[in-house]
Write a structure and sequence with these properties.
Strand content: 25-35%
CATH topology: OB fold (Dihydrolipoamide Acetyltransferase, E2P)
Low-confidence stretches: none
Number of helices: 2
CATH architecture: Beta Barrel
CATH superfamily: Nucleic acid-binding proteins
Structural class: mainly beta
Strand order of the largest sheet: 1-3-4-6-5
Helix content: 10-25%
Largest sheet: 5 strands, mixed, barrel
Oligomer: single chain
Shape: globular
Length: 146
């Protein structure tokens, strides 16, 4: 009797362990300058949110010709809850920040041609400009989940 395999009850096969494993880590640290003032919006559930873009300058390597100079990298950041309010209040175009967070796919985006845009979901923000740090509103609190 020739039976066809039943794929509906297929279980996930695991590769044999080779004595090591890698955890799934989604953490990113990035520092840069704001390209725009962070606008404050509210979700339908009343949660404050802001999005902004930071520009990072590549490290300058003196051994590399100026013709091969790398362009700045522009990164989209989303900030939630009280931290979004603090960013809107204290940050403006040109301010320097250090952001710790995780990468996430941009919501409501339909990928075309195998391009998947990502943004940083900020969980911790440190203001790097002296005038903001001197004001007492540090912004280095953790963001709540949306």
């Amino acid at each position: 009797m020739n039976r066809r395999p039943d794929y509906s009850r297929r279980t996930k096969r695991r590769r044999p362990s080779r004595g090591y494993s890698f955890p799934e880590v989604n953490r990113i640290a990035i520092a840069g300058r704001l390209v725009q003032d962070p606008p404050l919006r509210w979700t339908r559930k009343g949660v404050p949110v802001t999005n902004f873009i930071i520009a990072t300058e590549p490290e300058i390597d003196p051994s590399v010709d100026e013709e091969t100079k790398r362009e700045p990298c522009f990164v989209s950041v989303v900030v939630w809850a009280n931290q979004a309010i603090q960013c809107n209040k204290n940050l403006s175009k040109g301010n320097s920040v250090l952001i710790l967070g995780e990468l996430q796919s941009m919501p409501n985006y339909k990928p075309e041609r195998d391009f998947y845009p990502v943004q940083i979901n900020a969980q911790w923000i440190q203001y790097l400009d002296a005038e903001i740090a001197a004001s007492g509103d540090y912004g280095d609190e953790q963001s709540e989940a949306q």
